[in-house]
UniProtKB/TrEMBL annotation:
GO molecular function terms noted in the UniProt entry: DNA binding
Keyword set, alphabetical order: DNA-binding, Transcription, Transcription regulation
Domain of life of the source: Bacteria
UniProt protein name: HTH hxlR-type domain-containing protein
Domain HTH hxlR-type: from-to ranges: 15-96
Naturally occurring in which organism (per UniProt): Curvibacter symbiont subsp. Hydra magnipapillata
């Protein structure tokens, strides 16, 4: 990996490591717009202040936008979510393996 690629990955991970950032994007993965209140409910446990901060950061990063019906992911956000799509299958497989270890 080149130095430029390493920096780019680091920047993306720094953004996604922010508390609830991935959950906000994940809540919008189906492509349907959500109002602030619905998005807050979809994420669960996030305060309005934190959600506002994450929305601002994700909008500045070009991953999220606000349309007439509410918040939606941009094309770049949809691309990122597509690439994270295997996360759900991996999580289920991993969780099952972890449960077997404790038995």
């Amino acid at each position: 990996m080149s130095a430029k690629e390493t920096v780019a990955v680091g920047q993306l991970l720094e953004l996604l490591e922010s508390r609830y950032a991935i959950r906000v994007l994940w809540a919008l993965r189906d492509g349907h717009a959500q109002t602030f209140r619905l998005l807050q409910d979809s994420v669960g446990g996030i305060t309005p202040n934190t959600l506002n901060t994450r929305i601002k950061e994700l909008r500045e990063a070009g991953l999220l936008t606000h349309g007439s019906d509410g918040y939606v992911v941009t094309a770049a956000g949809a691309d990122l979510l597509k690439r994270l799509g295997d996360l759900q299958a991996f999580a289920v497989k991993w969780s099952t393996a972890q449960a077997k270890k404790t038995k």
